[in-house]
Hints:
Blueprint: H1 2-12, H2 14-22, E1 26-31, E2 33-34, E3 50-51, H3 53-65, E4 69-70, H4 73-80, E5 90-97, H5 101-112, E6 117-121, H6 123-127, H7 133-143, E7 146-149, E8 156-159, H8 163-180, H9 183-197, H10 201-208, H11 212-219, E9 224-228, H12 241-259, E10 265-267, H13 278-285, E11 291-293, E12 312-313, H14 321-329, H15 332-352
Parallel strand pairs: 1-5, 1-12, 2-3, 4-5, 5-6, 6-9, 10-11
Antiparallel strand pairs: 7-8
Helix pairs in contact: 1-14, 3-5, 3-14, 7-8, 7-9, 12-13
The protein binds zinc ion.
The site of zinc ion has 5 residues, from strand 5.
Amino acid sequence: MLATGCRLLHSSGMGRLLAPLTGHRGLVFTLHSVRPQSRMHGFAPNRHLTVTPEFLERTIVQARAAGLRIVSLAEALDHVETDDPAAQRVCAFTFDDGYRDNLIHAYPVLRKHEVPFTIFVTSGFVDRSSEIWWEALERIVRGASSIETPIGERMRTLDASTRDGKVRIYDRLLHWFTKELGEESQRVELRRLAAVHGLDLAALADELILDWDELRSLCRDPLFTVGAHTHNHFALARLSRTRMQDDIAAGLERLAAELGVTPQVFAYPYGFEAAVNHQSQEVVSQFNFRAAFTTHPGMLERKADRFAMPRVSMNGYFQDAAIVSQYLNGAPFPIYNMLRRIRDGVSLRRTCS
Length: 353
Ligand SMILES: [Zn+2]
C-alpha cells in the first residue's frame, strides 16, 4: 500500500507539491541487513529486511541532493527541538539488531560518504545466547522437505518440498510464533526445530551477527553510535512489566560491560503496533534514554512523543529511487497512517461486535 502510494505521489508530482507541508524536520531511516543481491534468490521470506550496498549509497546521495543534512541520531533529536522552521531538514541512518553485514557491506559506504549511523544492538544475539529466530526459521524451512510441529496442540507434518509449500509453512510458523506462542515459548520451539533439523543456532549467530570485538572496533569511529535494543529481542508488548524491565536492563548491562557505553537511544524490537503498547513505552521511559524509536512510518516533528518516535523502514522489495523521493518529502505518511487508523478502527469494531 505504501509503495503504491509513493509511486502515485511521484508520478503525479503531488508528493513534491505537498513536501512543504509534510516534510517537517526530516526523517530517520531503519535498515537491517545490507548485502549484495546475489544471495537473495529463491525462498527468502526475510528479503524485506535486506537492501544492497548500492541502494544504500544511492539513498545517501539522493537524500543530500534533496537538501537534507545527514546527521547522527543525537543531532536529529536536537534538530527536532529547534525553533527555527527554516532550518535545513535532516536525515539519520539506523540499523537494527547488529547484523555483521553492516560492518562488511554498509560501513565502507557510510565511511566513504561520512555518514553518521546508529546500530541498535541486541546483546543476546552478540552473546550468541539468544536466537535471531526469523533467520533461523528461514534456514530450517529452506533446508527441510517436511516439518513436524505441534501447531494446534497435536503434532502435524507439513510439506516443505516445494517453494510454495515452504512459503505456506513459513507464514504459518511465523503466525504461530508471533501471535499464538508466548515470546519465551517461541524460542523453546525454535530450539526444538533447530535440533531436529540440525541447525546450529550459535554458528548461525556467528555468521550473521557482529561479535563484541567488531563492535568495539566500530566504537572507535566517531561516526558510530550504539543504541539499545534489549537483550533477547522479545516483543515488549507481549511481556509482563517485570520481564520488559529485565530484558531492557539486561541489554544495557551487557553493552556497558562489553563496550563501556550507556546508550542514549533505544529502539523497540520489531517496533510495530503489536510489539509496542502504552505500557512498554512507559517502562522504556523509566530508563535514562533520551528517545525511543518505533518503526511506525512518519517524519520527525516537534510534537512527536520522544518515546514513540517514528522511523521509515527501507524495504528490500522496494529499492526504488521514486519511493525514496517520497519518503524524503514525507507526503505518503499522513495518508498511510490515516488509512491504517481507519482499518484498525474497522477491525476493532468487528472484534467488539
Ligand atoms: Zn530488531
